[in-house]
Design goal:
This protein is mainly alpha-helical. Helix content is about 15%, strand content about 0%. The protein has a domain at about 25-50. It contains one helix and no strands.
Length: about 60
């Protein structure tokens, strides 16, 4: 059996009552779950959720 490292990209769209994105991320990191299960041929060794903040850039006219 060999060990592989895989990366999954997941987009999560949420409705939130928090006033800022940091509070939303903190609550998700503390209270949400991401579940990957073993299969007959695969054993999950470790999972980690990497979070980032992404904001839609403003369309600004720079006079170009």
């Amino acid at each position: 059996m060999k060990t592989e490292e895989l990366f999954f990209i997941v987009r999560v769209e949420v409705n939130t009552k928090h006033s800022n994105l940091n509070e939303t991320l903190q609550e998700l990191e503390a209270s949400s779950r991401f579940l990957m299960t073993n299969t007959p041929k695969i054993t999950i060794i470790h999972t980690e959720i990497l979070t980032t903040k992404m904001r839609t850039p403003k369309n600004e006219d720079h006079g170009a």
